[in-house]
Structures are given as C-alpha cells and as structure tokens.
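Researcher:
Attend to token order:
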Amino acid sequence: MKKIIYTDKAPAPIGPYSQAVQFGDTLYTSGQIAIDPTTGHLVLGNVESETKQVMENLKAVLEAADMGFEHVVKTTIFIMDMGDFTKINAVYGSYLDEANAPARETVQVAGLPKGVTVEISMIARK
C-alpha cells in the first residue's frame, strides 16, 4: 500500500510530488536541495553548506518514515560540477556508516532547480 510521507522539518513540495512515498517497507524520497525548511530560503555560499542542508532535509524525511540513514540502500547524487565531488562526498560520508554504506551513483548535470549545486535522493528499506 502506498503511503505519502510528509514532515514540516523538510522543505514542502512546490509541485505535484511528495517529499517521499513509502510502499510496503521501501521508502522513495524525492530529490532534496538546500532549502532551509524553517525559512524557505536557499542555503548557499559553498557546496559543503549546501550538501549539509540537503542531508539534514533527507534525515528529516527519513525520520518521518521512522527510518534513518542506516536504512538507505540506494542514493543518487546530482551535481553541477564534478570538481566538487570530494567536498560533497566528505559531507555526505559524515552522515553514513561506511561499512553499511548504500549503493550510489553521482552524475554531473547541466542544471538543477533554483541554481543549486547539489541534489540528492534516496531509497530506504526497513
């Protein structure tokens, strides 16, 4: 059965999509960008601060589904500049246990919403 996951601790959707959808024991998150859910403003300045906000948003969505990063089985990272990979990876890695890390792909793209430099989505399973 499909269940829509929503929390006010992550940015509200601004279109016809959900923060996450849970189907059985599997959770599919929408891509998160660096929007501070308390202010609605972008967290810009450097790629590390953007990535940290993205991961905090994903953490909130996972928690709304009674899950955590230890439940993540797959991650997709979209970045504007592959030259930022090391910086993004360092912040991303600080949220995950390397021994239990999910599968992942990282893709450089031509553009992301609102001009951000990183967007991340996840699939998790209880």
